Amino acid sequence: MSTRIQPGPRERLLTAAQRLSYEQGVNVGVDALLTAANVARRSLYEHFGGKDGLIAEVLRRAAAEDLDAYRSAIAAAGDDPRARLLAVFDMLDQVVSAPDFRGCRYLGADLALADPAHPAHEITREYRQSLHQLLAREVSRLSLPHPARVTDQLMLLIEGTLATGAARPAGHPARDARALAEHLLP
């Protein structure tokens, strides 16, 4: 006879909050989070100190997953830095085209959380910095005259793709962004 081990309250809270904060935004109610996780209010405070801590941890977890997805897309494209950078937009086309795509969770959090001291803002900044560094490593391999500017432009194309994809996914904004990126990269 095998027994199935259920995740503990902390993991259930993280899983429920990651899903609900993406589907409904970071201002999803605490009661909805607790119900979805099937945990008592006390668990939220014991594990995360409150909803702000939970949202920050959800963003940290999602950022690690998303950065891994970028790394995987880049690595799968071979050794040519140009192909590796363009592969990011191919991956984004799949992400934005998914039926459950609801936009960039980091931009959504930044816009929804008015308090500049909310711990989520630090996580979103770190996420963007990490993504920027990932792109910068590839751009530097191209020996371009202004690599920092090209990296900033690629970030703008990525963030624009994710924002536009939430409003018009059928328009395939990642494909248009890829075409623009091709002009930036020799």
UniProtKB/TrEMBL annotation:
DNA-binding region (UniProt annotation): 29-48
Residue intervals of the HTH tetR-type domain: 7-66
Signal peptide location: none
Keywords: DNA-binding, Transcription, Transcription regulation
This protein's record includes keyword Ribonucleoprotein: no
One Pfam family this sequence matches: TetR_N
PANTHER family with a match to the protein in the record: HTH-TYPE TRANSCRIPTIONAL REGULATOR YJDC, TRANSCRIPTIONAL REGULATORY PROTEIN
Protein name: TetR family transcriptional regulator
Organism name: Asanoa iriomotensis
